[in-house]
Amino acid sequence: MFDVKEHSHTRYNILTGDWILVSPHRTKRPWQGKVETLPADDRPVYDPNCYLCPGNKRADGSQNPVYADSFVFTNDFSSLLIDTPEGGMDVAGLLKAKSAKGICRVISFSPDHSLTLPLVPVEGIKKVIDLWAEEFTSISSDPSIKSIQIFENKGEIMGCSNPHPHGQIWAQDSLPLELYKETVQQKKYFEEKSRSLLGDYMQLELKQGDRIVLENEHFVALVPFWAVWPYETMIVSKRHVQNITQLSDEERFAFASIMKKLTAKYDNLFNISFPYSAGIHQAPVNDGDHPEWHLHMHFYPPLLRSATVKKFMVGYEMLANPQRDITPEWAAEKLRSLSEVHYKEMK
Ligand code: H2U
Ligand code: ZN
């Protein structure tokens, strides 16, 4: 008899329409893979050579203010620029290109160079959320902007250029692929049921409990049924809101709190600063109403079985379909079992 805990199967990602292959029996396979070492994360409170520390000079010669909380500036090497001319090319439908314009911003989460997100006090994370909301409002005041992606790359193996706690915002004049797929899927569900896809999904997860990691009054953190990365998680707001500016003060505190606890659990998993790419998915802007959209945040961490062994997205994953060994239920149970207090903050 087929058993999802034992037998290979594919799982459907309701947010993207993609499928993922789950191979639970493969966790018994002997491991002779590559072993990497991560550098220790002991850093000074202030680094004179850091482009994010207060008062320091950046690559373009400008000087950071001596800021007290979080701090935002336009990326000095922006991938998207607001003054890129409109246009494109199409050669026989075979060589197609389109101009892409936008805005790239960098946000320091704290003046303290030694911290990482889980070690920033919850009040500090709340201020980061407030700044994200302010940025969302000001960036969307440009009618050419259609999507705003707030994200963080954490850790050297994620290509993060600087350990100072920080994130980025990229805003574009079109919908990037992931946002496009999630818009299509949420819209389809909303048009059929007049309810939020993620709202219904979250209720089901809360009832089953197997994949829940954390819950507070306003947010839930869970391992999605269709998770690709070993310890992938998602934070979903309980209230059906389209973007971060709609969150009340109390909800922002709850968001900050669950973010701190989830990332602390991540660090507690292998007793290291746990690398990931994380980002908030929100409704498109300057594109009419999007009642189907439900705010959520994805965490995509690459580590698999220790501080040094990461999951490789190669072979079958690259050429055919993403695949995972440990089940999302197993990962959720593991994350649930860990303390929500960071090992460096334990008394
Ligand atoms: P990471 O989140 O991947 O570390 O990137 C940080 C960004 O900071 C990166 O996109 C920008 C880089 O372009 N940056 C500046 O804007 N000014 C600087 O002085 C150095 C780096
Ligand atoms: Zn710094």
What does this structure look like?
38% of the residues are buried. This protein has one domain (40-85, 98-336): HIT family, subunit A (2-Layer Sandwich), CATH 3.30.428.10. The longest helix has 22 residues, at 249-270. The chain has helices at 122-140, 177-193, 197-208, 249-270, 316-319, 328-337, and strands at 9-12, 19-22, 71-74, 88-91, 95-98, 102-108, 147-154, 166-172, 212-215, 219-222, 233-237, 276-281, 296-300, 323-324. The protein contains 6 helices and 14 strands. Helix 1 packs across helix 4 (249-270). The protein has a 9-stranded antiparallel β-sheet, with helices on both faces. It has a 3-stranded mixed β-sheet with strand order 1-2-14, with no helix packed on it. The mean pLDDT is 94. A hairpin with a 3-residue loop joins strand 4 (88-91) and strand 5 (95-98). It has 347 residues and is an alpha+beta fold. Helix content is 24%, strand content 20%. Zinc ion (ZN) binds at residues 47, 50, 52-53, 113, 164.
Secondary structure layout:
Elements: E1 9-12, E2 19-22, E3 71-74, E4 88-91, E5 95-98, E6 102-108, H1 122-140, E7 147-154, E8 166-172, H2 177-193, H3 197-208, E9 212-215, E10 219-222, E11 233-237, H4 249-270, E12 276-281, E13 296-300, H5 316-319, E14 323-324, H6 328-337
Parallel strand pairs: 2-14
Antiparallel strand pairs: 1-2, 3-6, 4-5, 6-8, 7-8, 7-12, 9-10, 10-11, 11-13, 12-13
Helix pairs in contact: 1-4
Bound molecules: 5,6-dihydrouridine-5'-monophosphate and zinc ion.
Task: Provide a short characterization of the protein structure.
The protein is an alpha+beta fold and 347 residues long. The chain has six helices and 14 strands. The protein is globular.
